[in-house]
């Protein structure tokens, strides 16, 4: 995309690794590495799998280069006096302002069609999962949902009793306006 995004935020790490590892094959064409990395730098990665895929690109290596890594020559790193101590884990929690999120669920594909909307208040910076949880607390008969844990974190597999179905290739898509969310 013109903003540096390659696929979505989940595919960025592997895409950056692939482009770095195969750069000599794309000599006549240039890709804007700095623009792609700026997308990565702006994103707050929280899922372990996404971090594991983007980290090699950030340190200038790829999974393909791992086979040639010589670990016997690595120097161990010990903290020196010039390094600052780690941040305290018991730092005071900062209250964040509440924001209003307008959340709607729409099914026009299968079974009994439905469309419901609700406005919920959540702390600024909340995850989509938090929005779903608050909506479910306020109207459990309408905004119920179910998740399954994956290596990418929890994945929504059912909303309002309608489950995703790999055989039918159906799933729940999350949008902000008409744009698909890069990360749930």
- What is the share of helical residues? 10-25%
**Which consecutive residue ranges, at least 5 long each, have pLDDT under 50?**
73-92
Strand content: 15-25%
Q: What gap, in angstroms, lies between the N and C termini?
A: 20 Å
CATH class of the domain at 98-168: Mainly Beta
Under the CATH scheme, the architecture of the domain at 98-168 is: Beta Complex
Name the strands of the widest sheet in spatial order.
3-4-5
CATH topology of the domain at 98-168: Ferric Hydroxamate Uptake Protein, Chain A, domain 1
Q: Which of globular, elongated, flat, extended, rod-shaped describes the shape?
A: elongated
- Computed over alpha carbons, the radius of gyration is 21 Å
């Amino acid at each position: 995309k013109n903003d540096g995004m390659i696929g979505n935020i989940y595919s960025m790490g592997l895409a950056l690794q692939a482009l770095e590892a195969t750069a000599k094959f794309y000599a006549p064409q240039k890709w804007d590495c700095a623009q792609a990395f700026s997308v990565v730098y702006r994103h707050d990665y929280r899922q372990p799998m996404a971090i594991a895929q983007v980290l090699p690109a950030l340190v200038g290596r790829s999974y393909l280069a791992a086979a040639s890594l010589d670990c016997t020559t690595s120097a161990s790193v010990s903290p020196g006096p010039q390094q600052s101590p780690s941040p305290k884990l018991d730092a005071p929690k900062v209250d964040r302002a509440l924001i209003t999120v307008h959340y709607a669920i729409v099914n026009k594909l299968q079974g009994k069609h439905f469309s419901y909307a609700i406005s919920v208040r959540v702390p600024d910076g909340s995850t989509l999962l938090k929005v779903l949880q608050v909506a479910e607390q306020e109207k459990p008969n309408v905004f119920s949902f179910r998740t399954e844990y994956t290596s990418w974190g929890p994945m929504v597999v059912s909303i309002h009793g309608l489950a995703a179905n790999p055989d039918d290739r159906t799933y729940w898509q999350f949008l902000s306006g008409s744009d698909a969310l890069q990360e749930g």
